[in-house]
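Give me structure tokens for this 314-residue protein.
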Amino acid sequence: MSEPTLNRIGDAIAQALDGRAFEPVIAAQTHGSEPADVDIAFISRDVTGLSTKHRVLEPLEAFYVSLRQSPKLAWVHVHSAGADRPIFGELKSRGVRVTTSTGANSQVVAQTALAGILALAREFPRLFDAQRSQTWAPLIGDRMPRDLAGQTAVIVGWGPIGRELGGYLRMLGLNVIAVRSAAAPTADSVETHAFEDLPRIAGRADWLVLACPLSDRTRGLVNARVLAVMAPHARLINVARGEVVAEADLIDALRANALAGAYLDVFEHEPLDAASPLWTLPNVIATPHSAGHSDGNEVRVDRIFLDFLRDWRQ
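Here you go.
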């Protein structure tokens, strides 16, 4: 773990272990040393820092070295909801248990997705452009926004984020369709389809919202075939993983105005290349994988880790 994490929850770890002796290891201090022989590792947000799965920086690289050098490593807990970084597949192949903090930031991500929908629905990109050029350009005539009530949102992924967002959207009067791993009905009676059904139902979407894990079934799920059946007024929201979308196909659709716009928080390669058209397309809002960041996450992630730790002790 990191030193700030130890300072923050060291006493709580001792309580969770119920008197069982433990020796904390600060990962950065093990870099370049003999194998640490760590049993448990906790990758907190401060360890990940500005690293992405495509570009690993210190101190995360030192942490990864420690994990690879620990032959007795049995369990790794990570602050994120997903475990699609290459290191986790590597550890799982060794028999290491990897747990995530699913649900810790689901409300925050759902709120961010809602903000993206509202910003695009109310034509904020156009309004911001007008503000920067000091142009008075009211949303009237052919610029008139459509009412959200009565529109349809197809939410891909019906986990904590998708369900939370679905509740928000239904409060605003939208119809919600869920796309998930199985087409079986949900407990909340939402119309449900499997991932493979998306090309068939995407044409019904005013809003296609991605909130699913990255897997073999969801990688490249939104591609030219799906985009081709969507209405020109429809928009895409991606707070899942960048690889769920075939980015070149999306750029083509946006440039051709075959899709009205997109809010993208994640990308096929992160950081997003400075030369990417997604930075400058007028109908795109792009943010740097920050949809889930909030100052309350740390406490929620700590709580999840400590709950897992109590189970591990038993």
